[in-house]
Q: What sequence folds into this?
């Protein structure tokens, strides 16, 4: 059995670890991060060339099942996976970690896009902690507020005029996040609803400090695609395909 995991997430690595070496696993990474954490098993890097390229890769490499374990906000590859799996007649599962849940004391402002987030930050604060990744920074380029941008790799040139970049990669600790909010005098946090434990401490730190949080809602999983909420659930789905 050959499983293709579309990866780039902690959960994708955990799933590869759970399946390898009993099942042949190829993990696919987009190639955005200069030094990615690699999963066990085979790894390929770079785009497939759209739906047709992905469907052709699946056929040529005799893939029996595809698991879309990409980040909840990686919308294009998820759409391509749904189309390509249907074209190549292989089963597809979307592995999506649950989103974060607002708790008492949170001051969340939910928006549908980074552009909408850029529109509301000004009304909430002047010193923005932006944790939405380096790829969507252009949406904030015209914002006059001061920004602390945290990302794994250095962002491109399109960013707000007053920006300090902090290169770092999770998991982050509550202590570290508290210290960071205080050191930089942060008065508004912007995040995607990525979910997961690795980057959740910023939410609690914001709650404790009374800092409002702009939360970008997730795009939907493509229609008709079965989902699993954890690597364990996805591994069980694979075992089901094997007929155990
Ligand atoms: P995206 O907009 O959905 O995808 C853009 C293109 O990148 C896709 O059409 C595909 O190119 C290629 N691609 C994306 N993921 C791929 C993968 N796992 N393997 C091979 N090609 C892939 O994706 P994105 O939002 O830029 O995210 C890129 C990667 O970073 C994903 O693997 C995702 O899991 C990870 N990531 C994303 C975020 C986020 O906030 N978006 C956060 C953390 C990690 P072709 O059409 O040529 O196949």
A:
């Amino acid at each position: 059995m050959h499983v293709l995991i579309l990866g780039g997430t902690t959960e994708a690595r955990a799933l590869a670890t759970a399946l390898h070496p009993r099942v042949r696993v190829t993990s696919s990474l987009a190639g955005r991060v200069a030094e990615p954490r690699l999963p066990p098993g085979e790894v390929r890097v770079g785009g497939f060339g759209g739906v047709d390229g992905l469907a052709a890769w699946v056929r040529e490499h005799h893939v029996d099942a595809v698991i879309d374990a990409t980040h909840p906000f990686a919308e294009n590859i998820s759409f391509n996976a749904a189309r390509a799996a249907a074209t190549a007649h292989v089963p597809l599962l979307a592995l999506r970690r649950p989103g974060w849940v607002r708790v008492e004391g949170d001051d969340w402002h939910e928006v549908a896009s980074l552009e909408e987030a850029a529109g509301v930050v000004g009304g909430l604060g002047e010193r923005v902690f932006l944790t939405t990744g380096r790829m969507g920074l252009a949406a904030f380029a015209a914002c006059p507020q001061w920004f602390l941008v945290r990302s794994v790799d250095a962002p491109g040139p399109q960013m707000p005029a007053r920006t300090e970049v902090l290169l770092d990669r999770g998991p982050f600790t509550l202590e570290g996040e508290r210290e960071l909010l205080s050191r930089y005098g942060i008065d508004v946090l912007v995040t995607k609803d990525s979910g997961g434990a690795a980057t959740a401490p910023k939410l609690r730190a914001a709650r404790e400090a009374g800092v409002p949080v702009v939360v970008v809602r997730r795009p939907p999983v493509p229609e008709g695609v079965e989902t699993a909420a954890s690597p364990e659930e996805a591994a069980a789905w694979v075992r089901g395909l094997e007929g155990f």
